[in-house]
Protein backbone atom coordinates (compact mmCIF):
# COMPACT_ATOMS: atom_id res chain seq x y z
CA UNK A 1 0.00 0.00 0.00
CA UNK A 2 2.83 2.30 0.92
CA UNK A 3 4.60 1.47 -2.33
CA UNK A 4 1.48 2.30 -4.30
CA UNK A 5 1.05 5.61 -2.50
CA UNK A 6 4.71 6.41 -3.06
CA UNK A 7 4.38 5.63 -6.75
CA UNK A 8 1.35 7.89 -7.02
CA UNK A 9 3.20 10.63 -5.19
CA UNK A 10 6.22 10.25 -7.45
CA UNK A 11 3.98 10.28 -10.50
CA UNK A 12 2.25 13.45 -9.34
CA UNK A 13 5.62 15.05 -8.61
CA UNK A 14 6.88 14.05 -12.03
CA UNK A 15 3.80 15.51 -13.69
CA UNK A 16 4.13 18.64 -11.59
CA UNK A 17 7.78 18.98 -12.54
CA UNK A 18 6.92 18.39 -16.20
CA UNK A 19 4.15 20.97 -16.04
CA UNK A 20 6.56 23.42 -14.46
CA UNK A 21 9.03 22.75 -17.24
CA UNK A 22 6.31 23.17 -19.87
CA UNK A 23 5.13 26.39 -18.24
CA UNK A 24 8.68 27.68 -18.08
CA UNK A 25 9.22 26.75 -21.69
CA UNK A 26 6.01 28.56 -22.64
CA UNK A 27 7.10 31.59 -20.61
CA UNK A 28 10.49 31.53 -22.31
CA UNK A 29 8.87 31.30 -25.73
CA UNK A 30 6.50 34.15 -24.87
CA UNK A 31 9.41 36.23 -23.63
CA UNK A 32 11.38 35.38 -26.76
CA UNK A 33 8.39 36.35 -28.90
CA UNK A 34 8.01 39.62 -26.99
CA UNK A 35 11.69 40.32 -27.49
CA UNK A 36 11.39 39.64 -31.21
CA UNK A 37 8.30 41.85 -31.43
CA UNK A 38 10.14 44.63 -29.61
CA UNK A 39 13.05 44.29 -32.02
CA UNK A 40 10.70 44.35 -35.01
CA UNK A 41 8.91 47.40 -33.58
CA UNK A 42 12.25 49.06 -32.90
CA UNK A 43 13.36 48.30 -36.45
CA UNK A 44 10.05 49.61 -37.81
CA UNK A 45 10.39 52.74 -35.72
CA UNK A 46 13.94 53.18 -36.93
CA UNK A 47 12.87 52.63 -40.52
CA UNK A 48 10.03 55.12 -40.10
CA UNK A 49 12.43 57.68 -38.70
CA UNK A 50 14.85 57.00 -41.53
CA UNK A 51 11.96 57.27 -44.00
CA UNK A 52 10.88 60.59 -42.47
CA UNK A 53 14.45 61.87 -42.64
CA UNK A 54 14.75 60.69 -46.25
CA UNK A 55 11.45 62.35 -47.15
CA UNK A 56 12.66 65.55 -45.53
CA UNK A 57 15.89 65.31 -47.51
CA UNK A 58 13.91 64.68 -50.70
CA UNK A 59 11.64 67.65 -49.99
CA UNK A 60 14.66 69.82 -49.30
CA UNK A 61 16.29 68.60 -52.49
CA UNK A 62 13.12 69.31 -54.49
CA UNK A 63 12.92 72.77 -52.93
CA UNK A 64 16.53 73.43 -53.90
CA UNK A 65 15.92 72.16 -57.43
CA UNK A 66 12.80 74.34 -57.74
CA UNK A 67 14.73 77.31 -56.38
CA UNK A 68 17.51 76.75 -58.91
CA UNK A 69 15.00 76.32 -61.74
CA UNK A 70 13.15 79.48 -60.72
CA UNK A 71 16.43 81.32 -60.41
CA UNK A 72 17.53 80.10 -63.84
CA UNK A 73 14.20 81.15 -65.37
CA UNK A 74 14.48 84.50 -63.62
CA UNK A 75 17.97 85.02 -65.03
CA UNK A 76 16.78 84.03 -68.49
CA UNK A 77 13.86 86.45 -68.27
CA UNK A 78 16.23 89.16 -67.07
CA UNK A 79 18.47 88.53 -70.06
CA UNK A 80 15.39 89.09 -72.24
CA UNK A 81 14.24 92.28 -70.53
CA UNK A 82 15.41 94.37 -73.50
CA UNK A 83 13.62 92.13 -76.01
CA UNK A 84 10.21 91.91 -77.64
CA UNK A 85 8.51 89.27 -79.77
CA UNK A 86 6.68 89.93 -83.01
CA UNK A 87 4.17 87.15 -83.56
CA UNK A 88 2.14 85.94 -86.55
CA UNK A 89 4.30 87.68 -89.14
CA UNK A 90 4.42 85.34 -92.12
CA UNK A 91 7.71 83.87 -93.23
CA UNK A 92 7.59 85.28 -96.77
CA UNK A 93 8.08 88.82 -95.43
CA UNK A 94 11.70 87.86 -94.75
CA UNK A 95 12.27 87.21 -98.42
CA UNK A 96 11.12 90.65 -99.45
CA UNK A 97 12.58 92.68 -96.58
CA UNK A 98 15.14 92.07 -93.90
CA UNK A 99 13.76 91.84 -90.36
CA UNK A 100 15.45 95.06 -89.27
CA UNK A 101 13.57 97.02 -91.94
CA UNK A 102 10.27 95.35 -91.03
CA UNK A 103 10.71 96.31 -87.38
CA UNK A 104 11.59 99.91 -88.24
CA UNK A 105 8.44 100.14 -90.38
CA UNK A 106 6.31 98.75 -87.55
CA UNK A 107 7.81 101.25 -85.11
CA UNK A 108 7.26 104.15 -87.51
CA UNK A 109 3.65 103.08 -88.04
CA UNK A 110 2.60 102.08 -84.51
CA UNK A 111 4.99 104.05 -82.30
CA UNK A 112 5.89 107.24 -84.17
CA UNK A 113 5.98 109.36 -81.00
CA UNK A 114 8.66 107.38 -79.18
CA UNK A 115 11.49 108.21 -81.54
CA UNK A 116 12.88 111.38 -82.96
CA UNK A 117 12.04 112.12 -86.54
CA UNK A 118 14.20 110.28 -89.07
CA UNK A 119 16.19 108.61 -86.28
CA UNK A 120 16.58 104.87 -86.48
CA UNK A 121 15.89 102.86 -83.31
CA UNK A 122 19.03 101.09 -82.16
CA UNK A 123 18.60 97.33 -82.21
CA UNK A 124 21.21 95.00 -80.79
CA UNK A 125 19.96 92.01 -82.76
CA UNK A 126 16.84 90.67 -84.45
CA UNK A 127 16.10 87.14 -85.62
CA UNK A 128 13.46 84.44 -85.91
CA UNK A 129 12.94 82.32 -82.78
CA UNK A 130 14.35 79.27 -84.56
CA UNK A 131 17.22 79.50 -87.06
CA UNK A 132 15.74 76.73 -89.22
CA UNK A 133 12.26 76.78 -90.73
CA UNK A 134 10.69 73.37 -90.12
CA UNK A 135 8.24 72.23 -92.83
CA UNK A 136 5.84 70.74 -90.27
CA UNK A 137 5.29 74.11 -88.56
CA UNK A 138 1.80 75.49 -89.23
CA UNK A 139 2.47 78.90 -87.70
CA UNK A 140 5.26 81.34 -88.53
CA UNK A 141 8.23 81.57 -86.20
CA UNK A 142 8.24 84.49 -83.81
CA UNK A 143 10.60 87.37 -84.43
CA UNK A 144 12.73 88.35 -81.45
CA UNK A 145 14.21 91.83 -81.33
CA UNK A 146 16.60 93.04 -78.63
CA UNK A 147 16.96 96.80 -78.18
CA UNK A 148 19.97 98.60 -76.83
CA UNK A 149 17.73 100.88 -74.79
CA UNK A 150 15.33 99.35 -72.24
CA UNK A 151 13.06 102.41 -72.18
CA UNK A 152 12.61 102.20 -75.94
CA UNK A 153 11.44 98.61 -75.60
CA UNK A 154 8.98 99.58 -72.85
CA UNK A 155 7.55 102.42 -74.93
CA UNK A 156 7.04 100.09 -77.88
CA UNK A 157 5.23 97.57 -75.68
CA UNK A 158 2.98 100.29 -74.29
CA UNK A 159 2.22 101.67 -77.75
CA UNK A 160 1.47 98.23 -79.21
CA UNK A 161 -0.58 96.70 -76.40
CA UNK A 162 -3.25 95.40 -78.77
CA UNK A 163 -2.83 93.42 -81.95
CA UNK A 164 -2.69 95.46 -85.15
CA UNK A 165 -2.63 95.05 -88.91
CA UNK A 166 0.69 95.11 -90.74
CA UNK A 167 0.45 94.64 -94.52
CA UNK A 168 -2.87 92.83 -94.11
CA UNK A 169 -1.64 90.55 -91.32
CA UNK A 170 -2.73 90.70 -87.67
CA UNK A 171 0.44 91.10 -85.62
CA UNK A 172 1.11 91.18 -81.87
CA UNK A 173 4.11 92.54 -79.96
CA UNK A 174 4.43 91.03 -76.47
CA UNK A 175 7.37 90.97 -74.08
CA UNK A 176 9.94 88.30 -74.85
CA UNK A 177 10.06 85.77 -72.01
CA UNK A 178 11.53 82.36 -71.26
CA UNK A 179 9.69 79.43 -72.85
CA UNK A 180 8.59 78.05 -69.47
CA UNK A 181 7.23 81.45 -68.43
CA UNK A 182 5.31 81.76 -71.70
CA UNK A 183 3.87 78.30 -71.12
CA UNK A 184 2.77 79.22 -67.59
CA UNK A 185 1.19 82.45 -68.82
CA UNK A 186 -0.59 80.56 -71.59
CA UNK A 187 -2.16 78.27 -68.98
CA UNK A 188 -4.22 81.28 -67.83
CA UNK A 189 -5.73 81.85 -71.29
CA UNK A 190 -9.11 80.20 -70.75
CA UNK A 191 -9.64 81.78 -67.33
CA UNK A 192 -8.43 85.12 -68.67
CA UNK A 193 -10.95 85.05 -71.54
CA UNK A 194 -13.81 84.15 -69.19
CA UNK A 195 -12.82 86.86 -66.73
CA UNK A 196 -12.67 89.44 -69.51
CA UNK A 197 -16.17 88.51 -70.72
CA UNK A 198 -17.37 88.95 -67.14
CA UNK A 199 -15.73 92.40 -67.03
CA UNK A 200 -13.34 91.44 -64.21
CA UNK A 201 -10.51 93.43 -65.82
CA UNK A 202 -8.05 90.50 -65.86
CA UNK A 203 -4.33 91.01 -66.34
CA UNK A 204 -1.43 88.58 -66.46
CA UNK A 205 1.45 90.32 -64.73
CA UNK A 206 5.11 89.36 -64.74
CA UNK A 207 6.04 86.62 -64.59
CA UNK A 208 2.75 84.65 -64.67
CA UNK A 209 0.46 86.13 -62.03
CA UNK A 210 -3.23 86.67 -62.83
CA UNK A 211 -5.06 89.64 -61.32
CA UNK A 212 -8.79 90.41 -61.46
CA UNK A 213 -10.87 93.28 -60.13
CA UNK A 214 -13.81 92.13 -58.01
CA UNK A 215 -15.90 93.75 -55.29
CA UNK A 216 -13.86 96.92 -55.34
CA UNK A 217 -10.45 95.32 -54.91
CA UNK A 218 -7.71 93.61 -56.88
CA UNK A 219 -7.21 89.87 -56.35
CA UNK A 220 -4.01 88.18 -57.47
CA UNK A 221 -3.27 84.50 -58.09
CA UNK A 222 0.13 82.94 -58.66
CA UNK A 223 -1.24 79.61 -59.87
CA UNK A 224 -4.48 78.16 -61.25
CA UNK A 225 -4.66 75.98 -58.13
CA UNK A 226 -5.06 79.20 -56.13
CA UNK A 227 -7.81 80.52 -58.39
CA UNK A 228 -10.06 77.45 -58.35
CA UNK A 229 -10.89 77.42 -54.61
CA UNK A 230 -11.38 81.20 -54.77
CA UNK A 231 -14.10 80.75 -57.40
CA UNK A 232 -15.74 77.81 -55.61
CA UNK A 233 -16.22 79.94 -52.50
CA UNK A 234 -18.29 82.37 -54.59
CA UNK A 235 -21.24 80.39 -56.05
CA UNK A 236 -22.62 83.25 -58.16
CA UNK A 237 -19.27 83.86 -59.83
CA UNK A 238 -18.66 80.13 -60.16
CA UNK A 239 -21.97 79.71 -62.02
CA UNK A 240 -21.05 82.54 -64.37
CA UNK A 241 -17.72 80.91 -65.13
CA UNK A 242 -19.49 77.60 -65.79
CA UNK A 243 -21.94 79.36 -68.10
CA UNK A 244 -19.05 80.96 -69.97
CA UNK A 245 -17.48 77.52 -70.36
CA UNK A 246 -20.69 76.06 -71.79
CA UNK A 247 -21.18 78.96 -74.17
CA UNK A 248 -17.60 78.79 -75.40
CA UNK A 249 -17.90 75.03 -75.96
CA UNK A 250 -21.00 75.39 -78.17
CA UNK A 251 -20.36 75.59 -81.87
CA UNK A 252 -22.38 77.96 -84.11
CA UNK A 253 -24.33 74.94 -85.41
CA UNK A 254 -25.24 73.90 -81.87
CA UNK A 255 -26.45 77.41 -81.09
CA UNK A 256 -28.59 77.49 -84.24
CA UNK A 257 -30.13 74.11 -83.38
CA UNK A 258 -30.82 75.30 -79.85
CA UNK A 259 -32.53 78.48 -81.08
CA UNK A 260 -34.56 76.53 -83.63
CA UNK A 261 -35.78 74.03 -81.02
CA UNK A 262 -36.82 76.87 -78.72
CA UNK A 263 -38.96 78.34 -81.51
UniProtKB/TrEMBL annotation:
Location of the L1 transposable element RRM domain: 99-162
A GO biological-process term: retrotransposition
Disordered: annotated segments: 1-59, 238-263
Biased amino acid composition, Basic and acidic residues: 1-31, 38-59, 251-263
Single GO cellular component term: ribonucleoprotein complex
Gene Ontology terms, MF aspect: single-stranded RNA binding
Alphabetized InterPro entries for the sequence: L1_C, L1_dsRBD, L1_RRM_dom, Transposase_22
Residues covered by the L1 transposable element dsRBD-like domain: 179-238
Name this polypeptide is given: L1 transposable element RRM domain-containing protein
Organism field: Monodelphis domestica
Phylogenetic placement of the source organism: Eukaryota, Metazoa, Chordata, Craniata, Vertebrata
Amino acid sequence: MKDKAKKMKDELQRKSDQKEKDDQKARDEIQSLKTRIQKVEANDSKKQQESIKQNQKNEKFEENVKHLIDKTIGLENRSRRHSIRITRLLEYHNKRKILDVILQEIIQEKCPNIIEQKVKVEIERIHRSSPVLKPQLTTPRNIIAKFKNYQTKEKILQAAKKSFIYHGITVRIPQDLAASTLKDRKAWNMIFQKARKLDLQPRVNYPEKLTIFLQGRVWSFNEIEDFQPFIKKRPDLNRKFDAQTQNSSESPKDIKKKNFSEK
